[in-house]
């Protein structure tokens, strides 16, 4: 991999913006949406940089490592991750109560329910989602249906001062647009002529290899090799109460055999995860491409009666399960899943049918 790009000025800005929070002055924050995907994060950082505001990454710091493509690109762009400000490192409630907070929303134009309390201090919006018609007096209020909000941020930076686009900044913007537009693929129907044009501008500034950068990002998006069992499970996790049964299902991008090789006892780690969330049933749906698309199923259920009922039900349905060896506990069942059509969206209603009857 190439040497990391330079982002000296951004890093200086990030260090200074941390100090603004602890002063007694008004604080203008730029905040992305709660999903905190790469374009939300980069927009918070770079639009805050452009304005001299405080960027807020809208997830706890502990969740950052789950966005593996963001960890990769932000690091490659030379940005100091330690200096980023995450949602659990700034007390927005306290700032609002003190009358010191104003908020610019990027990559969303409607606050998520837990953050609706901040609606009265929203002063600006930059987004590419459907315009919900809120915050009519916001300034700026830029909502354009482009493929990536990075395209809008790049445009504003170029308008204000081209010198803001040091190499690391240009690389961060470029990689984000490529990821959001599936490398400008017309079939994905994401890229607009404006995204296209911005990619060309940024390619000229960075000298990057477009296909290589996109391939690197795609690879890193699915590269979960550095994550432990708890993080693998919570990276893409949903939970339901089905009848009287609390069920959690994580999508895991790793073969069961690789997971078992991670050293620590899988049944023990599943047990700890299930206990911490008071789950009766914890399922991992493993899906990966290596080389062809494969699905596997991991079922953890310590209660024997419930487990027998669940496993016999799953084996009767058309998931085409065949047992994989390697389980260290009777509570843990490992399966290859022949029917690739059963995603979490389809499994959840099946379980609902079972447990609600
Ligand atoms: Mn977005």
Helix content: 40-55%
Q: Within the CATH hierarchy, at the fold level, what is the topology of the largest domain? A: inorganic pyrophosphatase (n-terminal core)
Q: What is the C-level CATH assignment of the largest domain?
A: Alpha Beta
Please identify the structural class as seen in this structure: alpha/beta
Task: Enumerate the distinct ligands.
Answer: manganese (II) ion
Low-confidence stretches: none
Q: What is the makeup of the main sheet? A: 6 strands, mixed
CATH architecture of the largest domain: Alpha-Beta Complex
Instruction: Give the number of domains.
Output: 2
| Mass-distribution shape | globular
Strand content: 15-25%
Determine the N-to-C terminus distance.
55 Å
Q: How many separate helices? A: 13
Widest sheet: strand order?
6-7-8-9-11-10
What is the averaged pLDDT score?
Answer: 95
Order of helical and strand elements: HEHEHHEEEHHHHHEEHHEEHEEH
Annotated CATH homologous superfamily of the largest domain = inorganic pyrophosphatase (n-terminal core)
Q: How many β-strand stretches?
A: 11
- Compute the gyration radius: what is it? 23 Å
List the helices and strands and how they pair.
Elements: H1 8-22, E1 27-31, H2 38-51, E2 54-56, H3 68-76, H4 92-97, E3 101-106, E4 122-127, E5 141-143, H5 149-160, H6 167-180, H7 193-206, H8 210-221, H9 229-234, E6 237-242, E7 245-252, H10 256-260, H11 266-276, E8 281-289, E9 293-300, H12 304-316, E10 321-323, E11 332-337, H13 344-356
Parallel strand pairs: 1-2, 1-3, 3-4, 4-5, 7-8
Antiparallel strand pairs: 6-7, 8-9, 9-11, 10-11
Helix pairs in contact: 2-5, 2-6, 3-8, 5-6, 6-7
The structure holds manganese (II) ion (MN).
């Amino acid at each position: 991999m190439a040497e990391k790009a330079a982002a000296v000025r951004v890093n200086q800005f990030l260090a200074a913006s941390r100090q603004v929070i602890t002063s007694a002055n008004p604080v203008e924050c730029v905040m992305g949406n709660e999903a905190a995907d790469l374009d939300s994060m980069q927009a918070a950082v770079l639009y805050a940089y452009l304005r001299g505001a405080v960027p807020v990454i809208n997830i706890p710091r502990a969740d950052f490592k789950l966005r593996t493509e963001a960890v990769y690109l932000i690091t490659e762009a030379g940005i100091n991750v330690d200096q980023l400000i995450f949602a659990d490192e700034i007390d927005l409630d306290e700032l609002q109560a003190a009358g010191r907070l104003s908020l610019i929303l990027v990559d969303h134009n409607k606050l998520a329910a837990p953050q609706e309390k901040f609606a009265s201090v929203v002063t600006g919006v930059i987004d590419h989602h459907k315009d919900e018609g809120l915050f009519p007096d916001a300034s700026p209020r830029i909502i354009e249906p482009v493929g990536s909000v990075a395209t809008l941020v790049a445009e504003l930076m170029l308008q204000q001062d081209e010198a803001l686009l040091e190499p690391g900044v240009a690389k961060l913007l470029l990689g984000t647009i490529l990821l959001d537009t599936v490398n400008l693929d017309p079939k994905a129907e994401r890229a607009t002529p404006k995204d296209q044009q911005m990619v060309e501008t940024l390619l000229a500034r960075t000298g990057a290899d477009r296909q290589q950068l996109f391939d690197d990002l795609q690879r890193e998006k699915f590269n979960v090799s550095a994550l432990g069992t708890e993080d693998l499970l919570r990276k893409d996790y949903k939970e339901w109460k089905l009848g009287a049964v609390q069920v959690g299902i994580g999508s895991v991008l790793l073969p069961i055999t690789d997971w078992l090789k991670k050293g620590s006892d899988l049944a023990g780690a599943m047990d700890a995860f299930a206990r911490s969330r008071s789950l009766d049933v914890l399922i991992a749906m493993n899906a990966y491409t290596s080389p062809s698309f494969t699905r596997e199923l991991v079922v953890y259920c310590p209660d024997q009666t419930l487990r027998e009922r669940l496993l016999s039900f799953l084996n009767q349905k058309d998931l085409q399960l065949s047992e994989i060896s390697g389980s260290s506990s009777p509570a843990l069942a490992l399966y290859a899943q022949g029917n690739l059509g059963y995603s979490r969206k389809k499994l959840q209603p099946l379980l609902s049918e079972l447990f609600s009857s």
